[in-house]
Amino acid sequence: MKRFVFLLLAVTVWSATVTMAQNAPGSLASWLPKQRWQKRVVLLCAPNNTTPELQAQQQQFAAARSAMQERDISVREVLFEQLSAADKQYLTQKLGVKTSGFTLLLIGKDGGIKRRETQPITPKSLFQTIDVMPMRREEARGSKGT
Prior knowledge:
Elements: H1 2-22, H2 28-35, E1 40-46, H3 52-62, H4 65-70, E2 73-79, H5 85-94, E3 103-107, E4 113-117, H6 123-131, H7 134-144
Helix pairs in contact: 1-3
């Protein structure tokens, strides 16, 4: 029972965090470049919020919130059914995302796509990708020296 309550609380916190990112001012095409050199971005792209892979990914990430903050990760849900025509075009042409299913994109602080997945991944797998990046290694060395 405790585990269920924790999971429910974690998903609620996760949903609030993602909702804030979803409601970020401006379009995806204007928001994303503003994250450059500030945050690593994980885009969770899905047709709608009932997509099973999206829900599974939300559950995977819910318990890893502090580790994601430590790595300067901003998660944003991108629901195709809610996108403007301009954002759909940006997503498909600029980022190469297909609108027919789930896609996770990891975008580095430099603005480059570092990882693309069509199935949910574990936080550990995401962190392994990030933790070998030169910028992340430098950040980790800097925080140890403080």
